[in-house]
Design goal:
Radius of gyration: 21 Å
Bound molecules: guanosine-5'-diphosphate, magnesium ion
Number of strands: 24
CATH architecture of the largest domain: 3-Layer(aba) Sandwich
Low-confidence stretches: none
Length: 391
């Protein structure tokens, strides 16, 4: 099945926001052009679902993948944003709720990960004018303030949407007002998405360094040794029926696996190039966990290095935090989410402080690299940094 389109990168757009802001309704309507009729039961099911829903829109050059993050669980949003490499983040804010603390935290994460922001105000049709005005004001102030430092621009129907795709160069942060009842507003937003440029280019030629980050493991098919995983192919290419290496396992080893099938945008394909989210069916005898990677078959000497400890240059970003020796916290780095302990710290750090911190993974050694971005995100501890040393 030769599919030239695969050479094109997929554009990934993360929809972030609190529960009930209208993310799922918006993604469904954008991808199918049909309003979503949801009954209570379906709604319950969706809200208890801690996974990321994926929707697809076609455009001339790219498949646009909408990643509908479950806002009820901050850790799902954070993990998705770290591991799935979104090109853009759409912040969905309900007109009558306005900016909440959680929304601000999600925005902060996008800023840390340097993902360009787009704002959507939903349900403005059911919001009293004075509340809507106040909430839009807050959003505009946030955009023009220190953290984002862009020009907020409310996009109305007369706006030149096609040229708006250069909004990043123009230092603009677009704000769309959408109500599910008005189809023309949805169409304008969809046209805007279809004209966006990918922010990340694929490394298709780097076959020798193929690396696929596992972000989700679906239950094993009963009686079969196959596992289905979802993840992000960062470099290289994966062929169906090829032998690859999966690891690190609990003994820090890589084992050979066979790629039984590849699913891209819900279709089976024979190969997949980098810079795409795809599903793989693999026959694996070991237990697969988030944080594992799949790489091309290399000689023993060329295996990626696995580390228990690393040092990072850290900045504390939360007012309630004092970072100290022996602290245990959950750390996010690409597709890794694991508890870590602080084993060395320059000094007790509070909000705004920067310094060197040495961490130890508490469960498994992981495949990390110098320069990887890390986020420490817990109820009491918020910090960001870059890995500077691995051990
Ligand atoms: N009136 C109105 N209702 C909306 C609008 N957008 C979403 N909703 C409703 O708000 C509820 C929550 O939406 P949902 O997409 O599930 O929010 P999520 O939790 O962010 O995914 C649903 O009942 C939607 O039908 C809108 O623009 N206008
Ligand atoms: Mg939802």
């Amino acid at each position: 099945m030769e599919n030239e389109n695969l050479k094109n990168s997929q554009i990934r757009i993360a929809f972030i926001g609190i529960s009930n802001s209208g993310k799922t309704a918006l993604c469904s309507i954008l991808s199918s052009n049909k309003p979503l009729n949801k009954n209570k039961e379906e709604e319950e099911k969706q809200n208890s679902n801690s996974k990321i829903n994926e929707f697809i829109i076609k455009s001339k050059d790219n498949d646009i993948k909408l990643l509908d993050m479950n806002g009820k669980y901050g850790k799902v949003t954070l993990y998705g944003m770290c591991s799935l490499n979104p090109d853009y983040c759409v912040v969905v804010i309900s007109g009558n709720m306005g900016l909440t603390q959680t929304t601000k935290e999600f925005i902060e994460i996008s800023i840390i990960l340097e993902i360009p922001l787009i704002f959507i105000i939903t349900k403005y049709n059911i919001t009293p004018d004075f509340i809507l005005e106040e909430n839009i004001n807050d959003i505009q102030n946030l955009i023009s303030g220190d953290g984002i430092n862009k020009i907020p621009k409310i996009i109305n129907k007369d706006y030149d949407i096609v040229n708006l795709s250069n909004f990043i160069n123009d230092n603009i942060c677009p704000i769309f007002k959408i109500s599910m009842e008005d189809e023309s507003e949805i169409d304008i937003f969809k046209l805007f998405l279809q004209n966006l440029h990918p922010m990340q280019l694929s490394n298709n030629d780097d076959y020798d360094n193929t690396i696929y980050y596992i972000t989700n493991i679906f239950t094993k098919e009963e009686g079969k040794s196959n596992s289905i995983v979802n993840g992000f192919l960062n470099k290289g290419k994966i062929n169906k029926n090829s032998k690859m290496l999966l690891g690190p396992d609990s003994n820090a080893q890589f084992i050979e696996v066979n790629i039984k099938s590849i699913y891209f945008n819900d279709n089976p394909v024979d190969y997949i190039y980098s810079n795409n989210i795809c599903c793989l069916s693999i026959d694996s005898q070991i237990e697969i966990r988030k944080g594992m990677i799949i790489i091309n078959n290399v000689t023993k000497n060329n295996l990626p290095k696995i580390y228990n400890e690393f040092t990072a240059d850290i900045m504390v970003v939360d007012h309630n935090t004092i970072l100290k020796q022996n602290f245990i916290c959950v750390l996010y780095c690409r597709n890794i989410r694991q508890s870590c302990q602080i084993v060395e710290i320059e000094y007790n750090m509070k909000c705004g402080d920067r310094g060197k911190v040495k961490f130890r993974f508490l469960k498994y050694p992981e495949c990390i690299h110098i320069g990887d971005k890390i986020i420490v995100f817990e109820s009491k501890i918020r910090a960001v940094g870059l890995i500077t040393e691995v051990k």
